[in-house]
Amino acid sequence: MPPRDAGAAAGRGAVGGDDDARARAVARPFTAGGWARTPEVRFFALPAPLDPGDFGMSFLERLPLACLQGGGSAVACVTTPDDVLNELFSAARYGGVGGQGQGGAYARLFAWESLYALMGLPADVPFLDAVRTTPDHRWVRFLASTPWFHHDTADLGFAVLDPSRTRVAVLAATDTDVRAPGG
What we know:
Number of helices: 6
């Protein structure tokens, strides 16, 4: 995704918000399996709708995210909810380095609860309704060469722009056999 000035400006105007219960649900696939490091989960509100084309690395780099601090190159690409769900399921199912994965049913549960939380959906939304809303969101995968990430295949970052184009959820995860800086 090419950098866009409008994305950078929108990122500077984003306001972070706290929602501990929602953050725990997003992080659950990583925390249940014994990952060495707690993922970064953040939520932001925008003062005006963001053009989906501006939702990329230029935008994300302006957010106060620990995973993107410290310089280094970064890249983002549009992805699908299937890609996100696959990563969430894999994290829960197989666990992290030295961790223990969850059984298939629990891994699926944790993955779906995390996806619901990323989209800002209440837990009582029927499954098929949740699936129908996934294309209405803009899904981005990102990665950065910063001290926060471990720089291996266990690194991942996702950002989700809601259908109103005014709310963003970010999940960044990395797994190591030792505690990494900032985690």
